Amino acid sequence: MSKSRFDLEEIIDLEKWEKLQDSLSLVTKMAILTIDYKGVPVTKHSYCQPFCHGVRQDAHLSQYCQKCDARAGIEAVRQNKPYIYLCHFNIIDIAIPIIIDNQYLGAIMAGQLKLREPDAPMLEQIVSRPPNVESNRKFKELEEHYDALPVLSYDEVTKCVDLLLQLSTYIVEEAIHKHTTIDLYKKVLTSGTDVPASMETFHHESNRAVRNIQSIQQELSGALIDTKLKNGAQGFVSSNSVLQPAFDYIFAHKHESFSLKEMAKLCHISPSYFSRIFTKETGENFSVFIARLKIEWAKQLLETTDSPIHQVSDDLGFCDTGYFIKTFKKFENLTPAVYRNMYAESSAK
Fold first, then answer.
1. Phi and psi torsions of 87, nearest 5°
2. Cβ atoms within 10 Å of 132's Cβ, excluding its own
3. Is 262 found in the same domain as 127?
């Protein structure tokens, strides 16, 4: 395969990509690794499952893992689409090719899970491994980890794969667009000529790209917070159907700050009318209700995660950590740090 004129390590900020990769892994329950067109990893492994980690540490078994990765990448390129297959331990893995302008840049390797339903489509075991005493012994050592592998339905797997494919392709395309724009500006500056009219188009396109990426980040942020919260998926069913769009939005965008005007507009009513029926519905005015709700979410995050106080504040859309602590203390009569310590002590008893 000839070398692509693009290089993943040159066009993508790998440090930021790894953080996004970690987030995607948490949301999808899949282990994820990004490789270049040669098959060489360009990122660390996000949440490699203990079973697979143990297998890859074994000199004999790891060679079969490498064969799976290599052959799956080739098959994904050949089919020009994500390739879902079984590894040599019959674990679900996926190779998602990153192809831009018909050029293979690399792939996202994801998976390390099992299927829930017994009637899933027949999948190819891409590499077969003859049984031997040592392999069986190693499996027995790791059998507890094997049983603990994440279990998803085939439909859930395909939806996760579609998410990874669209997001990775979009980000790579925008990264290439950014580099192309920068190269054009450099050429204009070095040539001493006037900026061509087409550069104005690039400027608008770049702004659009930034907005779209921010939108993706916001949606992913909301999904992450829901994953962390014990009751994150629960909403609020209003007895007044007029208010329901506002409640749905609030519970789906926990990482945002909310204004009464915006929520009234969402419900297609005036702010004054929204305020009146909202207070009647909840027993509190809008600002107090939102503050109390966010503090309840904050308590869940403090109880169930090790996120720093400033991260909890950011996750729930507070303007700064100081304001978050002040609001928390107003409702709970103690600071978030003291609350976390008290909860940890009571749980340990």
1. -80, -175
2. 10
3. no
Q: Are 15 and 156 in a shared domain?
A: yes
Residue-range definition of the domain harbouring residue 142: 8-171
Residue position matching structure tokens 């303007």: 319
Residue for token pair 């003291």:
338
Buried b (16+ CB within 10 A) or exposed e, 172-209: bebbbbbeebeeeeeeeeeeeeeeeeeeeebeeeeeeb
Reading the chain (349 residues) residue by residue, the pLDDT tens digits are 444 456 666 667 778 888 888 888 888 888 998 888 777 788 888 888 899 989 988 888 888 888 888 888 888 888 888 999 999 999 999 998 887 767 777 888 999 999 887 667 788 888 888 888 888 888 899 999 999 898 888 888 888 888 888 877 777 766 666 656 555 555 555 655 454 444 455 455 445 544 554 454 445 545 555 554 544 445 677 788 899 999 999 988 888 889 999 999 999 999 999 999 999 888 889 999 999 999 999 998 998 888 899 999 988 989 889 999 999 999 889 999 999 988 888 777 6
Domain count for the chain? 2
By three-state DSSP, how is residue 110 classified? Answer: strand
How far apart CA 26 and CA 22 sit, in angstroms, is: 6
Q: Which of 171, 201, 232 is the last residue of a domain?
A: 171
